[in-house]
């Protein structure tokens, strides 16, 4: 039989990082850069890029097929749920705009796997 000596764990001396609070977030479409921007307390902390599937220049209109390309959150805000807040808001806006989605981004794909209520937004061609 082995006996293990477990050293005492030192107390946490750094502040605990708060989880994302959707009420602090503002998501804005930034069509000039083909992305949605996530703002928290006036700071840009995340983006979700998109493009029209038909490769036509311009803002996707109602009912357009739109690829969600990539989701990025700053390192300082990572691991706290901000990406989920961003994706949720983008999917809600896509519903309002009648977009037919092509989720290229693996984070969006995983989000859709858990939040199946958004699956009807997927383009039939996917």
Write the layout of secondary structure elements.
Blueprint: E1 25-30, E2 35-40, E3 43-52, E4 65-73, H1 82-97, E5 100-103, H2 106-114
Parallel strand pairs: 4-5
Antiparallel strand pairs: 1-2, 2-3, 3-4
Keyword list:
Aminopeptidase, alpha+beta, disordered N terminus, 126 residues
Describe this structure as you would to a colleague.
The chain has a five-stranded mixed sheet with strand order 1-2-3-4-5. The chain is an alpha+beta fold. It is built from two helices and five strands; from the N terminus they run ββββαβα. Residues 1-14 have low confidence and may be disordered. It has helices spanning 82-97, 106-114; strands at 25-30, 35-40, 43-52, 65-73, 100-103. It has a single domain (22-120), classed as Aminopeptidase, CATH 3.40.630.30.
């Amino acid at each position: 039989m082995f006996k293990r000596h477990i050293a005492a764990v030192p107390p946490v001396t750094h502040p605990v990082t708060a989880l994302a609070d959707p009420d602090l977030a503002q998501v804005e479409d930034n069509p000039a850069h083909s992305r949605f921007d996530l703002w928290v307390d006036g700071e840009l902390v995340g983006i979700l890029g998109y493009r029209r599937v038909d490769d036509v220049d311009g803002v996707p209109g109602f009912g357009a097929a739109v690829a969600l390309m990539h989701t990025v959150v700053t390192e300082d805000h990572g691991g706290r749920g901000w990406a989920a807040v961003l994706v949720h808001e983008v999917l809600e806006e896509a519903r309002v705009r009648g977009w037919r989605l092509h989720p290229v981004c693996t984070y969006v794909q995983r989000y859709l796997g858990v939040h199946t209520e958004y699956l009807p937004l997927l383009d039939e061609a996917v």
